[in-house]
User: Which sequence fits this backbone?
């Protein structure tokens, strides 16, 4: 009788365990068709598993709240560090800019899923090392999904009743200059010092271990293709080259769904110091871009409708592929 | 091992496996507030004149709501607050309310002045700036001769509205 009772209890117990641990509990993070941190993490692992010969996931380091910051490397002979041109795509500096995470993630997915069927993709993957960090600010993004949709910064406890550092004002190049704030409560708080945040340190250390020929950082919104400098109105030494590439990317974007993105120097609107593109370009002279994705204006602003995720990716795909191709074929700059 | 023992072991392994796959992380211990520097605090008020009294005593006010202000108060300034029969309390993040505003008539050459106040510029459209700001910012913007139109008293009210 005891044996039967134990079996009956197990039959009841196991499904309960499954439902309570494997299904997200009610109220768990849900970003609709946009990806949460947990979803991005899982799908990156799935991509690696499905394309283990082409994709390698690397845990670059931990965020303030100890979440892993993932990079996916896409290349043939992916386990080997080959002497090939490298390019870096970053998403999710700013927590509320959800589309900036989905676009680089979908880029990784596209490259891997079309490798066998598209000779151009195969060529890009075989000829270079493509690194994609879809979500640099996992803590802030999680907070944006669960608590405050408009959260921008990371989740640093500033120790004075405020939280967060603007990661895109925390890089060391011209840190502390115009367009950043020393007030902890400000949305553009630059942090207590250059690279004070683990999330930006991760990019610094990772970039120093590699030789990126170009970089593209996704944000939203405004539909812009921006290039250094951001901290000054003076043109960068490679302004003509960077503007030309930016204009070609903008044209490529326009040709897909007719959305006009404006190519301009980052400081054309106003100055901002300590951002990722000024830092990488300032350190290495690698052309570095910010693409401000859809929409064009403040309404809907950060809340880009889910129906626009795929079209936004579709129009940005040829721009990303163009930059990959340029980094592999036409790059004449000597970096580092 | 008996069948029952094996079943329990399998259930245990399954339970552990599922939990490690959820992607949830334990937040790291966060740094504690330093008592030596200024703190952002809540000061409950009962009438609007108390806002002026605090301001006249040099308290750096960030936000004014109906029943409280949010202010940056250094330890040595606590005495000024107490002298007004008021007290400071820890502030919740949700109480650091920001407004969504539109600032028309901003010449291109003067946009930087606004940005350098530490405001969160959402959009520059023609000569109008749309931004997320604290009340402190609004006063500073107005001091510079600009007009500030409040679009939302609490920027959180914008959420989901754009798609309705």
Assistant:
């Amino acid at each position: 009788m005891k044996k039967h009772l134990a079996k009956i209890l197990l039959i009841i117990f196991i499904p309960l365990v499954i439902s309570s641990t494997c299904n997200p509990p009610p109220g768990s993070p849900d970003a609709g068709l946009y990806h949460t941190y947990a979803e991005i993490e899982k799908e990156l692992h799935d991509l690696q598993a499905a394309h283990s010969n082409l994709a390698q996931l690397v845990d670059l380091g931990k965020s303030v709240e100890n979440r892993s910051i993932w990079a996916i490397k896409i290349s043939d002979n992916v386990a080997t560090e080959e002497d090939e041109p490298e390019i870096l795509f970053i998403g999710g500096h700013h927590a509320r800019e959800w589309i900036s995470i989905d676009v680089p993630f979908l880029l990784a997915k596209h490259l891997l899923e079309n490798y066998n069927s598209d000779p151009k993709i195969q060529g890009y993957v075989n000829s270079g090392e493509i690194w994609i960090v879809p979500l640099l600010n996992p803590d802030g993004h999680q907070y944006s999904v669960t608590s405050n949709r408009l959260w921008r910064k990371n989740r640093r406890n500033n120790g004075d009743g405020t939280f967060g550092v603007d990661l895109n004002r925390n890089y060391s190049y011209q840190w502390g200059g115009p367009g950043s704030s020393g007030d902890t409560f400000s949305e553009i708080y630059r942090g207590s010092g250059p690279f004070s945040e683990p999330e930006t340190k991760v990019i610094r250390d990772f970039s120093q271990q590699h030789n990126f020929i170009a970089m593209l950082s996704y944000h939203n919104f405004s539909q812009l293709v921006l290039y250094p400098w951001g901290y000054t109105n003076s043109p960068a030494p490679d302004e003509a080259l960077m503007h030309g590439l930016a204009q070609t990317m903008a044209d490529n974007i326009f040709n897909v769904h007719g959305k006009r993105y404006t190519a301009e120097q980052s400081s054309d609107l106003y100055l901002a110091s300590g951002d990722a593109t000024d830092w990488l370009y300032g350190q290495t002279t690698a052309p570095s871009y910010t693409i401000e994705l859809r929409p064009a204006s403040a309404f809907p602003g950060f809340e880009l409708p889910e129906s626009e995720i795929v079209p936004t990716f579709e129009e940005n795909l040829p721009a990303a592929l163009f930059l990959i191709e340029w980094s592999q074929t036409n790059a004449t700059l000597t970096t580092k | 091992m008996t069948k029952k023992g094996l079943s329990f072991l399998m259930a245990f392994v399954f339970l552990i496996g599922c939990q490690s796959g959820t992607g949830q992380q334990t937040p790291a211990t966060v740094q504690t507030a330093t008592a030596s520097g200024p703190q952002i605090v809540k000061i409950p008020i009962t009438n609007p004149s108390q806002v002026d009294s605090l301001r006249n005593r040099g308290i750096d006010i960030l936000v004014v709501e109906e029943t409280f202000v949010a202010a940056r108060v250094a330890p040595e300034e606590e005495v000024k607050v107490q002298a007004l029969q008021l007290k400071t309390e820890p502030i919740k993040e949700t109480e650091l309310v920001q407004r969504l505003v539109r600032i028309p008539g901003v010449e291109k050459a003067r946009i930087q002045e606004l940005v350098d106040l530490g405001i969160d510029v959402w959009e520059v459209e023609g000569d109008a700036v749309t931004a997320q700001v604290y009340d402190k910012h609004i006063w500073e913007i107005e001091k510079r001769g600009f007009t500030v139109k409040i679009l939302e008293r609490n920027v959180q009210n914008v959420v989901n509205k754009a798609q309705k």
User: Anything to note?
Assistant: The longest strand of chain B covers residues 39-44.
